[in-house]
Amino acid sequence: IKIMVEDQVPVSQNSQIEVTIQDLGGARYNKTTGKLIWELELKSNETRKLVYKFEVKYPKDKVIMGL
Question: Tens-of-pLDDT digits for all 67 residues of the chain?
């Protein structure tokens, strides 16, 4: 089966908050929207783990929701 998996990393609108991609895990990445897209072809009963990593740096006095 062919499948498309989509996810998203945070995109900062604040210059004090910096998001750095560490590992895309083989995904296509849209820098503007933060969208990650994997296009996979899986065999019957096959499973696959998709791993990606990012880092968020922000000032200690800021509260970041959702992290």
Answer: 999 999 999 999 889 999 999 999 999 999 999 999 999 999 999 999 999 999 999 998 888 877 7
From residue 44, alpha-carbon distances to 6, 40, 51 in Å are 21, 13, 21
d(CA 57, CA 67): 11
Contact 59, 14 (CB under 8 A): no
Cα maximum dimension of the chain: 50
Token readout for 58 is 């922000």
**CA end-to-end span of the chain:** 33
Evaluate whether 8 touches 36 at the Cβ level (below 8 Å). yes
C-beta of residue 37 within 8 angstroms of C-beta of residue 3: no
